[in-house]
Specification:
Length: about 425
């Protein structure tokens, strides 16, 4: 079985959904598991619903209406008859969403977040599945929450591999077209959980691992993995073949074309990953597989925006050594900060982090009790894998550099 993943960009409108069908017809779909994300920017739109809900804002109904109108617009582009059952199914899903908000008693933001954002994937897969049926393409709609079991870390759930493996082995039908949701799972009480933003690639890898898939293909709006994000770097070039290790490094440093958690399960079973264009499905794209000889021979540029650079120094001029560092790391972990760079000297320690969950204010208060805390918000972190002189010049030009670090293969620069 092959696993395909289509992200938000691929199903952002009715033409996108039609194109997914065209891609499947080009590459075959007899024995395929299709993982689909929420349409376009739906997850962001649902985040706004949640924000309005918690702030008890008068804008809440408008925020819900926007999500609803967007999806009904897509339905109208796919089905000419509003009596099709998918219209009433969507209406009842939105009624469920509103009912949840009306009756919810939980003050837990992360819990509520998962119960609401999950509608994005549930709705998108319902639309795609019915559209395929309508076009005569039989398929099996699966509720991923019956397969991927997790702990209760809402918004960043950890997969229970044993239960997940059992569910998938027992209940995923082979030799058919299966359609399921990316990004979602469920906990032991069957409440919905999510695997972290952009987590649908990871969902594809989880299924691939558990069914021993032949391959995974993630279909993108770019030709494959390139040596830079083409949005920010002119002349980005396609990497035809890279190793799992290189892909993990690129994803870890912030090449958003692949979610970093995707590679490890695939690498463990040596399942090849293809990153291909949904615009030109006949092109080979990038293949990610085993092998040290597959390293790119050109510098790869990665930029992460909206990072935080924190520098801590001791209040009493004492050294920042093992015990302080271990305390600092345990706090970073506790406040769910993602660390992408570390540098230390005798009495200071700098760290470049991403504050995904908006916890910096609280963390700062704790840190200030023990350290002098200096910080820059909204900095950019540039990473160059396989750097050379010319590559570093390109990145450094016209920028104020706050920190620079060089290892054998990788150069990192934090800029304002
Ligand atoms: P999805 O629709 O699957 O969620 P994303 O938008 O998350 O897709 O990922 C595709 C985007 O990743 C591309 O449009 C591109 O701007 C960005 N990107 C970042 N780094 C790279 C890279 N090294 N190669 C290709 N694309 C990249
Ligand atoms: N819809 C989710 C998000 O936007 C998951 C994904 O797209 O991968 O984060
Ligand atoms: Mg995405």
């Amino acid at each position: 079985m092959r696993v395909f993943k289509f992200g938000g960009a691929s199903v952002k409108d009715a033409d996108g959904v039609k194109n997914v069908l065209r891609v499947l017809q080009t590459v075959g779909f007899d024995d395929v598991l299709l993982v689909i994300s929420a349409m376009g920017k739906t997850t962001n739109a649902l985040e706004l619903v949640i924000k309005n809900y918690f702030e008890q804002s008068a804008e809440l109904p408008d925020a819900i209406a926007a999500v609803k109108e967007y999806h009904f617009g897509i339905l109208n582009g796919l089905f000419d008859n509003e009596n099709h059952e998918v219209f009433s199914m969507l209406n009842s899903m939105f009624a469920d969403l509103e009912y949840f908000l009306k009756t919810n008693k939980s003050p837990n933001y992360n819990f509520v977040y998962d119960q609401i954002v999950s509608f994005g994937e549930l709705i998108s897969t319902t639309i795609v599945s019915h559209y395929f049926d309508f076009c005569g393409i039989k398929n099996n709609w699966l509720d991923v929450r019956n397969f991927i079991k997790t702990d209760t870390t809402y918004r960043d759930a950890v997969v229970n591999w044993e239960l997940t493996q059992e569910n998938i082995s027992k209940n995923v039908q082979k030799n058919v077209l299966n359609i399921t949701q990316g990004f979602l799972g469920s906990d032991e009480n069957n409440f919905t959980t999510t695997l972290g933003r952009e987590g649908s690639d990871y969902t594809a890898a989880i299924f691939a691992y558990c069914i021993n898939a032949e391959s995974v293909t993630i279909w993108k709006d770019v030709p494959g993995v390139m040596n830079a994000d083409p949005r920010y770097f002119q002349n980005a070039a396609l990497l035809n073949q890279i190793s799992y290790r290189e892909a993990i490094e690129l994803a870890f440093y912030g090449a958003t074309v692949i979610h970093p958690k995707t590679l490890q399960p695939l690498q463990r079973k040596e399942i090849p990953l293809y990153v291909k264009s949904f615009v030109n499905p006949e092109l080979p794209g990038t293949s990610v597989s085993k092998g040290a000889d597959l390293e790119p021979h050109l510098p790869c540029f990665i930029v992460k925006k909206e990072q935080l650079l924190i520098s801590l120094s001791s209040l009493d001029f004492s050294f920042i050594v093992e015990e302080n560092i271990s305390e600092i790391f345990s706090l970073l972990h506790q406040y769910k900060m993602k660390v992408s760079l570390i540098q230390n000297s005798a009495i200071s320690f700098s760290v470049c982090i991403e504050d995904k969950f908006g916890n910096f204010g609280d963390l700062k208060n704790v840190l200030q009790k023990k350290f002098k805390v200096a910080y820059n918000q909204n900095v950019s972190l540039y990473t160059i894998r396989h750097f050379n002189e010319n590559a570093s010049k390109i990145v450094e030009e016209n920028k104020e550099i706050l920190l620079k670090q060089i290892s054998r293969e990788t150069m990192q620069i934090v800029t304002k």
